[in-house]
């Protein structure tokens, strides 16, 4: 493995931290962070569709799993 699994863990940790900060939705700034998180999810899920079979194998996903993840709504973890 070339470290892409570690990248997934770091991105997941960042997503959880941002979700934790966005949880007490009281102000417009918090809503802005939530949209930032949503956009990141949308972009990264779409990026899965562009990975080669070798890249998917490096991160431990099959083509079917990557496609299923990419098609999930951005508001779902």
From TrEMBL:
Residues 33-67 form the YjiS-like domain. It holds the Pfam family YjiS-like. This is DUF1127 domain-containing protein. It comes from Pseudomonas zhanjiangensis.
């Amino acid at each position: 493995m070339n470290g892409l699994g570690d990248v997934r863990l770091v991105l997941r940790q960042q997503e959880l931290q941002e979700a934790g900060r966005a949880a007490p939705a009281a102000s417009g700034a918090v809503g802005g962070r939530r949209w930032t998180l949503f956009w990141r999810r949308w972009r990264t899920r779409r990026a899965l569709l562009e990975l080669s079979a070798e890249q998917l194998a490096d991160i431990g996903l099959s083509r079917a799993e990557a496609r299923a993840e990419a098609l999930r709504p951005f508001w779902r973890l």
